[in-house]
Specification:
By secondary structure, this protein is an all-alpha fold. 82% of the residues lie in helices and 0% in strands. The N and C termini lie far apart (48 Å).
Length: 87
């Protein structure tokens, strides 16, 4: 995935500008495609800049927890295989 030229706080500001001035005008001003602005609107639509860091933190924590669950599932499978072979 390509890294954005804009921080998430800047993206929220651009989305707010697109609501106020329209997508076409905003896309020309910030040199971003209209499609990108619509994607950002869908993702960051009603967020405040302060909420973006919270979203990022929660997303990172969710990824970490998913990894832990996957590791535990693997450990359980290995233990089941070992237990089945002993009998």
């Amino acid at each position: 995935m390509r890294k954005s030229h804009y921080s998430e706080e800047q993206i929220v500001s651009i989305v707010r500008a697109s609501h106020a001035h329209g997508v076409s005008t905003t896309s020309k001003k910030y040199k971003v495609s209209s499609h990108t602005i619509y994607i950002w609107r869908k993702k960051y639509g009603s967020m405040e800049p302060s909420q973006v860091s919270e979203l990022k933190r929660i997303t990172q924590e969710n990824a970490r927890l998913k990894k832990l669950v996957a590791e535990r599932d693997l450990e359980i499978e290995v233990m089941k295989e070992i237990a089945a072979k002993k009998w």
